[in-house]
Structures are given as structure tokens and as C-alpha cells.
Task: inverse folding
């Protein structure tokens, strides 16, 4: 009952917000297209509003392309809705101030509407550029442990690929190429490889693209919340295993003298009867003199990981809010929502992710990959390479 009530309230709020947006667009279209009928406009508008939801409804095989189209349209509308919620109240405020000062407003609707649409176009274009052009961020970390060599360990990290109907093979191929160019010792995929459904991942042969990832000591992944939402974890882990990528579910592997630890996502606590293991239980029996690199999709429990002896903790999930000003929210929800943090001796890195959820739009965040140079037996403290070499943009 509580979930039902929450769903009804959410739909009511969503409906009211979009009525507010739709009314403004209706007023503008009446200026530009005087012959438009409300009986045509409002049904079309609300179909677009709920396109993302409609696109997630299971459809017969023959209608699946239509469902995919709805999902794409709906994803872009989500970005438009967020921009509108920011821009339209400002427009109304300007209108109110002008009205109080007695300024003539005969042309205001047209001028304001054109301005808002122009800003919307700029946001969409700039946001699309940020979503599809990738930055490689390099971090050099010192871990005071030994594996018998002074050569730094190169670890390539990608999180939040969200492979599906929006983020497809084109973006994936570029990720594989960029990671392979790092010549990594280990490749780590820190959750949300899938965008819920496994169907487009299989249909478009994305597993065969991931199969091209090359690393001396293996490619490993963990589950994110979206793998749980998709409900195909067993099939997903089997497909990944078949291409040589081990999905770690509260598991530890030792490779080249380094422990790679993969936690189940926090979502397991609500969606699996057994939940997930604690960090202490997961690390029980490990040789703590060896480097421990842990993936945990959602960036939580830093203090616990530090006390347990984890050396490097890798997370994603937040997308750094993906679209501004959401990053103000994620910054307050998480101890670290993006970037680097040293917690005692624990190096924490949270990625903004490679793909996108919903619209392929990013503002105040970028599509990114992480390159780690883990220095063992060193005395250096954490340092980040100069900007010119630490972060390079790769146009996609």
C-alpha cells in the first residue's frame, strides 16, 4: 500500500509539472499556429510526456521497434522537462515583473517562447556533446604494499555504460578502443553495464564488442542497480562469463598478486533474500599485505572499507547528477559523488560514468573513463598528473 501510494503521488506530481509545461507550450503554439485544436494538442503532448514509460511496457515482437522509438523520444523529453522546469519559472517571473511595471507585453509570448526554445536547443546540443565525447581521467595512486615488482599496475575502469537502446555499439566500440589503448593490466567494469533490459544487449551483439577488451590479468565486472532492475542477472552473468568477463557477486579473485573484490550492489539488500555480504565478511581470510582493489557500484561505506584494509575503492552510480543542477543533489547525498578522496589509507574514486541513463545528455558532467597507475612499494602520496596528461578529451 505504501508503494502504491508513493506511485500515485509521483504520477500526480509528474502530471501537474507537465501540465504546467504543456500549458506554456499551448499558449506559444496558439500564437504561432492559431488553428491548432486542444483536442489534438493535449493527447499528443501527454503521449510524449509518458513515452519513456510506454516504451518500457512489454510489447509483441512485431511492435518492439515502436516501443524502442517511444523510449528514445521519452528519454529526450526527460531532458527537455528538466530544462523547462528551470527556465519557465524564470520566464514567468520576468513576465510578472514587466506586468507590474506597466511595460507593454503584446509580443512577450513570442519573444520569450523563442528565447526559451533557443536556450533549450543550446542545452541539448551542448549536453549531447558532453555525453558522447569522452574524457580519460588519469590518477596515480601509491599503495604501500608489494607484489614483487616496482612497475606500476595499470587499471582501466569504466562504470555506468547503460548499454541498451540509447547507448549502443558505436559508443561501446570507442570505449573498447580507448581502454585497449591504455594497455591495461586489469580492466574493471564498476556496475550498470546494462540499461535495465538485457534484450538490446543480446540483439545488437554488444557482448561481442565487450569481448574485444584486452587486459594482461583479466577483465572483471560487478552488478549495478540497473542489472537488478532488469531481472536477468543469471543470463547476464552467463553471457559475460562466455566472453571471458567474470561478474563478481560478493566474490574475490587474486590476479598477479592483487586481490580484486566485487561486491553485490546495495540493491541486493532490498531485492535478494540473502542481501549481500559485509565488507569484513567478504575480506575474511585474505592476506592483507597484498593490494586490495574493491568495486562497489554505489559510493557508500568508505569508513568501513578503510577500516577493513581496502586500498582502492571504485564506484560509479551517481553520473555526477548527469544534468545540472542535479549534481548539487548528488553532492549532498554522497560523501563523494565524483572524483577522488583519500580516506585514511583508502583511495576512493567515483566515476561519472561512460554512458547515460535516460537522455544522452550531460551538463556539468562528462562521459569518462578512468586510468589508474597503481604504484606499489612506493613512498609517494596520492598525486594527479598535470591536467594536460591527466584528462584528455576524445571526440566521439
Result:
Amino acid at each position: 500500500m505504501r508503494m502504491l501510494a508513493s506511485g500515485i503521488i509521483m504520477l500526480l506530481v509528474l502530471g501537474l509539472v507537465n501540465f504546467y509545461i504543456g500549458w506554456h507550450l499551448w499558449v506559444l503554439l496558439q500564437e504561432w499556429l492559431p488553428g491548432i485544436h486542444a483536442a489534438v494538442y493535449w493527447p499528443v503532448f501527454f503521449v510524449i510526456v509518458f513515452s519513456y514509460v510506454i516504451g518500457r511496457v512489454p510489447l509483441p515482437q512485431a511492435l518492439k521497434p515502436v516501443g524502442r522509438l517511444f523510449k528514445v523520444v521519452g528519454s529526450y523529453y526527460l531532458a527537455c522537462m528538466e530544462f523547462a522546469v528551470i527556465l519557465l519559472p524564470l520566464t514567468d517571473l520576468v513576465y510578472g515583473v514587466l506586468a507590474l511595471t506597466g511595460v507593454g507585453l503584446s509580443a512577450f509570448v513570442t519573444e520569450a517562447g523563442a528565447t526559451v526554445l533557443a536556450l533549450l536547443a543550446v542545452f541539448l546540443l551542448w549536453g549531447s556533446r558532453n555525453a558522447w565525447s569522452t574524457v580519460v581521467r588519469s590518477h596515480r595512486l601509491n599503495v604501500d604494499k608489494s607484489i614483487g615488482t616496482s612497475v606500476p599496475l595499470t587499471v582501466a575502469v569504466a562504470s555506468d555504460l547503460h548499454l541498451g537502446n540509447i547507448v549502443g555499439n558505436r559508443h561501446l566500440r570507442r570505449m573498447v578502443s580507448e581502454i585497449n589503448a591504455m594497455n591495461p593490466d586489469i580492466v574493471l567494469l564498476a556496475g550498470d553495464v546494462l540499461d535495465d533490459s538485457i534484450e538490446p544487449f543480446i540483439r545488437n551483439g554488444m557482448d561481442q564488442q565487450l569481448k574485444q577488451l584486452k587486459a594482461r590479468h583479466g577483465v572483471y565486472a560487478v552488478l549495478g542497480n540497473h542489472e537488478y532492475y532488469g531481472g536477468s542477472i543469471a543470463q547476464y552473468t552467463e553471457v559475460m562469463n562466455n566472453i571471458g568477463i567474470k561478474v563478481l557477486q560478493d566474490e574475490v579473485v587474486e590476479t598477479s598478486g592483487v586481490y580484486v573484490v566485487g561486491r553485490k550492489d546495495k540493491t541486493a539488500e532490498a531485492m535478494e533474500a540473502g542481501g549481500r555480504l559485509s565488507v569484513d565478511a567478504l575480506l575474511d581470510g585474505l592476506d592483507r599485505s597484498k593490494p586490495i582493489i574493491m568495486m562497489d557500484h554505489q559510493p557508500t561505506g568508505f569508513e568501513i572499507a578503510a577500516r577493513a584494509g581496502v586500498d582502492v575503492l571504485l564506484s560509479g552510480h551517481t553520473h555526477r547528477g548527469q544534468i545540472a543542477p542535479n549534481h548539487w543533489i548528488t553532492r549532498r547525498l554522497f560523501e563523494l559523488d565524483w572524483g577522488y578522496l583519500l580516506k585514511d589509507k583508502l583511495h576512493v574514486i567515483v566515476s561519472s560514468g561512460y554512458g547515460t541513463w535516460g537522455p544522452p545528455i550531460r551538463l556539468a558532467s562528462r562521459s569518462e573513463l578512468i586510468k589508474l597507475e597503481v604504484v606499489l612499494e612506493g613512498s609517494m602520496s596520492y598525486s594527479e598528473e598535470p591536467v594536460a596528461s591527466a584528462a584528455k578529451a576524445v571526440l566521439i
In short: The two ends are 46 Å apart (CA to CA). Residues 2-130 form one domain. DSSP finds 15 helices and 13 strands in the chain. The longest strand covers residues 134-143.
